[in-house]
Amino acid sequence: MVHSSYPQPGRQGRMLKMSELLRGLASYIRNSTNPDMHVISGQDWSEEEGYSAGTEPQQGRAELVDPKGNVDGVSVGDPQAGRLKYFMDGIERKHVPLYFSMVPIVYGYIAAVIRERGEDKRMCTFAEGHAFSEALFFPFRMVEPSGFMLAGLKTVNTENDEKPLEEHPMILREAARVAISNARGRLETELAKIWLEKMEGGQDWLVVDGSLGGTLGGDYRRYESPNVLGVIKSHQTQYFSMEEQRKILSLRAGERSGIFKPLGREHQAPVYSWYLRLRPCEGQDVYFGLVRIEAPANDRTIEMVDELSRWLLAERCPLSLPDSRWDRMFYPIRDCEQYLRSLAPTKTMLEASMIGLGA
Q1: Residue 48 burial by Cβ neighbours in a 10 Å radius (0-12, 13-18, 19+)
Q2: How far is CA 169 from CA 66, 96, 99, 181, in A?
Q3: pLDDT digit string, tens, across residues 110-161
Q4: For the purposes of burial, counting CB atoms within 10 Å of the CB of 57, is it exposed (0-12), middle (13-18) or buried (19 or more)?
Q5: What pLDDT, in 10s, does the model give residues 64-99?
Q6: Which of the 8 DSSP states describes residue 316?
Q7: Rounded to 5 degrees, what are φ and ψ at 348?
Q8: Where are the alpha helices (DSSP H) in 117-168?
Q9: Rounded CA gap, 61 and 63, in Å?
Q10: Whole-model pTM?
């Protein structure tokens, strides 16, 4: 059995500290007499776990680098306990607590953590492996930020000079969503860099929930052979023609596809990638139990691809239930999410902060 340690009730101080911005915002609203301020509460609370590069399906491009020259399925052998000891994931929270002259002011909370599996199988937090941030996101051109800043509230401009935003509330909310997700990606990048600096040259590996391009960007290129793997659970991007994709979707449990290099990522470090079927999909959706793996683009990845896949297969137990993504989620990644949720501000906390302010 894998054990986890989460913050206990006696550590309330740490959890309450993480909602300082909400309390400060409530105080700011309470003391404001501006008639252009429209306060809302109890609605539009959004929670996202893991890294998301986008939700729109798209056709990507790829270059085959597998020695056998195709994407056909290959059995990787029996699951094997390996050197996957560290796991990283992040979360974000978004809410619109008020509008200012019909411009949405979006509260954003982001956090990320690296969890370490000890010799006793218990999960604990890696040293310097937890970070969080919260702020108000909106376009400074449309709402003067000085009032919020004087109240000690952190603000982030969602607009840049190169591409002014249209004055449409839904467009402004989408810009805030993108800014929050980008901020989470940068936070995860900083944690990954800390891990790489401390663990460079070691034998243990870090498993990242999501794309290495999204999480590490180009930063890992300065390391000769970083021990990092990215696990992508969603499949919005299809890299091959329908016939080749059919072969990928026909993979059986314990099989991987051929190795390929995703293209069109000029501003990110190159990666090698392959698909791996974790569980049988008979009677299930064709994507059931299917993940895409990313690793640094070097010869070592090609040499170790089957071994790395066996290590990942060994992470299928225990099951990540009751999470709806249990068929594609490794338990240590779920442990990261559970840890972050235990410290994050909740919908109840937000509603308590805003109660009575919209009257």
Answers
A1: middle
A2: 47, 11, 9, 18
A3: 999 999 999 888 999 998 899 999 999 999 999 999 999 999 999 999 998 7
A4: exposed
A5: 999 999 999 999 999 999 999 999 999 999 988 899
A6: G
A7: -60, -40
A8: 146-150
A9: 7
A10: 0.87
